[in-house]
Structures are given as structure tokens and as C-alpha cells.
Amino acid sequence: MRELDVAQVTDAVAKLAVDACNFLGEDVVAFFEKALEREESETGRDVLTQLLENARLAKDTGRPLCQDTGLAVVFMEIGQDVHLTGGDLETAVDEGVRKGYTDGYLRKSAVADPIGARKNTGDNTPAMLHTRIVPGEQVRIILAPKGGGAENMSAIGMLKPAQGRQGAIDFVVDTVAKAGPNPCPPIVVGVGLGGTFEKAAYMAKHALLRKVGSTNPEPRLAKLEDEIEERCNALGIGPAGLGGTITVVDVFVEELPAHIASMPVAVNIQCHSARHKEVVL
């Protein structure tokens, strides 16, 4: 049994919060570079050039990629042979978010009483924390800042099983079409198929953590991802919603068995600033 002081979790979360907001992943940067060659719209190419310049400036100056530094969505995989010491884990994660967003001068966007006073919590807490118990004695932490513009365009549908594969595709594409320019395209589209209402939504968000350009190991789902991406790009929304052939960065699908009477389909959209960083303790 390995012991791990939760103070290490706090320090790790604080660093991840700053790094995720300031440094765009190389996989996303590589996509923008290649997309410049494929984008048919001159305006679209200009937007992609600006996104690359924005990523460079953020990296060089240590400043946020976007003014919306989002809510801190934290995924943790906790080894079952780890004994966490020194305090409460959720408190430690929130303290990391508080420290990272304060010391890193990141915008704090969390408001309490969301249908009432909507008073800012002042430190961007609480974190949106998702935990899994896995084999081993390590703790993997992934922090993904999630901005409001993209999150607001996400959707979940409890489809009828008879709607089948085509119905699921149509729901995803329709969600992207309705989103239009609002989520700051080109976008990453996370899709959760099956499970239950809440599990489909979780899968859709978790799917966004995949590396851009990666291929789904399940051929059936890889084909589905390609088909959804092709149809979404055909919408012509384009970079920044100004028209073009590149509307989608990538499409990632996760799947679980569902009830015989249900077919949940969730879509979680991420903006072009597809930010997330991780560390293993």
C-alpha cells in the first residue's frame, strides 16, 4: 500500500490549471497547421492562422489562450492500492483550483445560486470532479478547463431504440448545426452513446480528452466518428463560424450498453481551444 499526501494533489491541480489554460496541446496545434492546407475558404485560412498565432503568443508569454478560462473539470483515476493521507481529497482538489486560478491570474467564472443571485464564488471552486478507482498505486489527474460558450451548445437526447444508428448521427449533426458559430469552431465533438442519462453525458465529456488525430480502437466506432465528422464539416460553418470546410477538429465517441427501452445520445462540444493537461502522481 502506497501512501500519498493530498497536499501533492493540491500542488498538481494548481499547476495543471495554469498549464491547461496557457499551453495548447501539440496535437491541436498540428491539426491547425494541417487544416490550413485543407481549408478552402480564404477567411477560414485567416482564422486558422490567427489561432496558431494566438497559441504561440500564449505559450511565449504564459498568458491564457482565451479570456474564458472555464470551470475546472477534473478527472482522477485513483489506484486502489493508494492510501490518501493528510486530509480530504475533494478539499485538496478545490484548494488546487483556488491556488491555480488565483496565483495564475485566471478568470474565475463559477457562480453559486445559479438560478438566483448568481454570486461569484471568488476562486473558481468547486471543481467539477470525476473519480474512478483503478488497479495500481498511482493517481492520474487530468484537468480540462471548460468554457461556457462551448458547454452551452452541448445536448443530450433520450432517443428511441428504433431511431438506430442514423438517428444518433442525425442528433449529433443537428446539435452541431444548431450550435453554429457559438462554440468558437473548429470544435471537438465528444459523443456518449448508451448507458444511462448521466453516464452518456459523462462519456461525451470524457471523450474530449482523447488525442486529436487518434483512431478509435473499435473499427465500428472509428467509422462512425469519420461519418459524423464528414457530415459536420459539410455544414459549412467553418472556422469562427465565418464559413468554410473545417468546422470540426475531431469527433470522439465512447459507448456503453443501454437498457432495452433506451438509447441515450449525449454531445459535449469543445471549442477550438481544446485544453487539458495531465499528470501521474
General description of the model:
With 281 residues, the protein is of the alpha/beta class. The chain has two domains: 2-20 and 65-146, no CATH class; 149-274, 2-Layer Sandwich (60s Ribosomal Protein L30, Chain: A). 40% of the residues lie in helices and 26% in strands. The protein is built from eight helices and twelve strands. It has helices at 6-22, 26-38, 42-61, 89-103, 148-151, 164-179, 197-207, 219-233, and strands spanning 2-5, 71-79, 82-85, 111-112, 119-120, 128-134, 139-146, 155-159, 187-195, 248-258, 263-270, 277-280. The strands form four sheets. It has a four-stranded mixed β-sheet with strand order 6-2-7-12. A four-stranded mixed β-sheet has the order 8-11-9-10. Strands 1-3 form a two-stranded parallel sheet. The protein is globular and about 55 Å long. The two termini are 14 Å apart. The mean pLDDT is 97.
Report a brief summary of the structure.
The protein is of the alpha/beta class.
Task: Show the helix and strand layout.
Elements: E1 2-5, H1 6-22, H2 26-38, H3 42-61, E2 71-79, E3 82-85, H4 89-103, E4 111-112, E5 119-120, E6 128-134, E7 139-146, H5 148-151, E8 155-159, H6 164-179, E9 187-195, H7 197-207, H8 219-233, E10 248-258, E11 263-270, E12 277-280
Parallel strand pairs: 1-3, 2-6, 9-10
Antiparallel strand pairs: 2-7, 4-5, 7-12, 8-11, 9-11
Helix pairs in contact: 1-4, 2-3, 6-8
- Record the strand order, biggest sheet: 6-2-7-12
Shape: globular
Summed over residues and divided by their number, the pLDDT gives a mean of: 97
Report the CATH topology name of the largest domain.
60s Ribosomal Protein L30, Chain: A
Number of helices: 8
The Rg value, from CA coordinates, equals 19 Å
Which CATH architecture of the largest domain is right?
A: 2-Layer Sandwich
Class inferred from helices and paired strands: alpha/beta
User: Would you state the CATH class of the largest domain?
Assistant: Alpha Beta
- How helical, in percent, are the residues? 25-40%
Could you give the order of the helices and strands?
EHHHEEHEEEEHEHEHHEEE
Q: What is the CA-CA span between the terminal residues?
A: 14 Å
> How many strands, what sense, and barrel or not for the largest sheet?
4 strands, mixed
Strand elements, count:
12
- Tally of distinct domains: 2
Provide the low-confidence segments as ranges: none
Q: Which range does the strand content fall in?
A: 25-35%
